Amino acid sequence: MEKPFERTLILIYTGPLFDSHLHLYDPTRAEGIPWPQPGDAVYGPRLPADYWAQAEPCGVIGAMVVEASPRREDNDWVLCTLDQDPRLVGYIGNLDPLAATFGADLERLAADVRFRGIRYGNLWGRDLLADQQQTGFIDSLAHVAERGLVLDSANPDARLIQALLALSDRLPHLRIVVDHLPNAPDLAFTAELQELASRPQVMAKLAEIPQVGDHGLIRDAAFYLDVLGRLLELFGEDRCFFGSDWPNSDHLANFTTTLDLVKACMATQPAHTQEKFFLHNAPRIYGLPGAFR
């Protein structure tokens, strides 16, 4: 039987794109930023105009920002920053479900239709497997689910997959997006990820695809095809979608190079699958405006 991605190239996608994962921040703010740190290659202001200078020539027509700070007040800063460009139609915030302020913060932020959920995982010293055993954590995430919002995870490893399985058992109506799975290729073949992918409320954001080898950026799409094919097989064409991870992706390659590599990896897929992956799936999954679906 033919395996995923063992077909000849069909076509390179040339249609419009929706980017489900980018970060905005400004270290010149009086309070500074927790990430990135001075000396990092991506340190410095990264604002909407900076993003669109890279993304618009590549055909991106809409995008979603993911919070890069654990500070609750920075959620409001990002939402205000989205006002600089109407194409930034969605936002995944960063709230702590164990914080006493969680309920009030969620209610305030959810009043803005661009706010589509929160991120929680292996980030900022958090541990989703342990934290969900704490009093109040599940109740807080139940409120996220009840509002039709999404939980994005962060930095996948085997423990995080176990945590997401346990969480989806307790909150089967919570939509979960697993971020950056291509950056953890060994997970694509584990029984735990297969079980997680069998649950229709769990989605896969295929960001952080590029990798570096002994000679720099690996540009050969064939290097990535087994893992990407496995993830597409597990989650299906309706639950996988594109994210650039800009500007964090600049550690490896610029926006155009990153996108060209992802397009080459997807070029063995039928045209309708690529259109779902690059344009339609993310807006539908996050409940964004109909114009992007």
From TrEMBL:
TM region positions: none
Gene Ontology molecular function terms on file: hydrolase activity
Keyword Cytoplasm: no
Keyword set includes Nucleotidyltransferase: no
UniProt keyword annotations, A-Z: Hydrolase
Pfam families: Amidohydro_2
Family, similarity comment: Belongs to the metallo-dependent hydrolases superfamily.
Protein name, per record: Amidohydrolase family protein
Organism field: Pseudomonas eucalypticola
